């Protein structure tokens, strides 16, 4: 009864949180906790009710399989991340931001090997603390993925006055495939809204000029839209922003100059959708986004990068969460 009540309460909290604001990692956390509590509740019922005896053996089998397969699954994930990292480096170069999936894969392998070798002999408490921290942030990464997927499932209404397309870097004056996918997604929304609602939206293409770029990203994006048949009157260029935070704030200024009461969406790649939503919230924009597809080899590294960026966005909160773990580790060391 208590477990069932906790499950219902946690799911109710999830619904309230999600319907209030879809841009929260808390949504993924509450949904994950609700599912875990539901699974525990079902397990308790099966174990207590006599006529469900056959299901008990199924639960035992699942438990054995879970315990047996978990180490192999972790190793498989590590190997996949290493292979993905190598593919990304081969196709995109050895930029620091392209090394994350490879680094994480190697770190998982090193942690497994270190725990197997040293946990019984040298520095057992230190290895255990590292393992606890890894599990803690692994859990939050999973919650982040759930929150991202929930946010991606939401499809904004086609009643928008503005379509904000976030810049992502250009090559000289050329729009690369990653940025083109964002623009194409915005173009698709533009025409579908015109067809179904008869309402034309204005594009805001936002992005300044980087050190290796011949023109501002906003101007290159505007050229792409014109070449795709979008009228110049429906294109507004923001050419000063250097990051997502400025993309949102500067776009807000443009929209407020153009129209007093407005509805808008932003367009970015799927992996960037959730964090961009957080920046929109910070800028005071009550808008949601739509995500464009990304090459599959790019996705794992991109999600890891986005998660790290979100940790830094809320570094004070995570520092407070990290302190109890550090104190627990110190207590272990003093005890030993």
TrEMBL record:
| Highest taxon of the lineage | Bacteria
Which Gene3D superfamilies has this protein been placed in?
A: HUPs
Family annotation (InterPro entries): Cell_Envelope_Assoc, DUF218, Rossmann-like_a/b/a_fold
An annotated GO cellular component of this protein is:
plasma membrane
> What Gene Ontology biological process does one annotation of this record name?
Gram-negative-bacterium-type cell wall biogenesis
The segment(s) forming the DUF218 domain are: 161-308
Identify the PANTHER family for this entry: INNER MEMBRANE PROTEIN, PROBABLE PERMEASE (PTHR30336), MEMBRANE PROTEIN (PTHR30336:SF18)
What is the designated name of this protein?
A: DUF218 domain-containing protein
């Amino acid at each position: 009864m208590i477990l069932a009540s906790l499950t219902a309460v946690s799911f109710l909290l999830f619904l309230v949180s999600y319907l209030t604001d879809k841009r929260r990692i808390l949504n993924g956390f509450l949904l994950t906790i609700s599912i875990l509590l539901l699974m525990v509740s079902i397990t308790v019922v099966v174990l207590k009710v006599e006529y469900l005896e056959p299901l008990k053996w199924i639960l035992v089998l699942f438990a054995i399989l879970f315990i047996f397969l978990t180490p192999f699954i972790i190793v498989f994930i590590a190997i996949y991340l290493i292979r993905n990292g190598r593919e990304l480096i081969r196709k995109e170069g050895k930029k620091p931001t392209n090394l994350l999936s490879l680094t994480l894969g190697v770190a998982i392998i090193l942690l497994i090997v270190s725990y197997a070798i040293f946990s019984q002999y040298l520095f057992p408490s230190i290895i255990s603390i590292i393992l606890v921290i890894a599990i803690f942030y692994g859990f939050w990464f999973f919650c982040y993925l759930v929150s991202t997927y929930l946010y991606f499932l939401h499809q904004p209404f086609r009643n928008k006055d503005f379509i904000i397309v976030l810049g992502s870097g250009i090559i000289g004056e050329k729009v690369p495939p990653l940025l083109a996918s964002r623009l194409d997604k915005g173009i698709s929304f533009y025409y579908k809204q015109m067809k179904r609602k008869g309402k034309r939206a204005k594009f805001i293409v936002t992005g300044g000029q980087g050190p290796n770029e011949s023109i501002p990203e906003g101007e290159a994006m505007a050229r792409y839209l014109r070449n795709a048949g979008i009228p110049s009157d429906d294109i507004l260029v923001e050419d000063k922003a250097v990051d997502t935070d400025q993309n949102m704030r500067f776009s807000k200024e443009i929209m407020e100059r153009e129209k007093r009461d407005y509805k808008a969406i932003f367009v970015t790649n799927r992996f960037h959708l959730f964090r961009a939503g957080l920046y929109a919230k910070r800028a005071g924009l009550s808008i949601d986004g739509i995500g464009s597809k990304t090459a599959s080899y790019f996705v794992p590294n991109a999600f890891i990068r986005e998660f790290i960026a979100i940790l830094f966005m809320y570094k004070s909160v995570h520092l407070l969460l990290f302190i109890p773990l550090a104190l627990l580790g110190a207590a272990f060391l003093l005890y030993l």
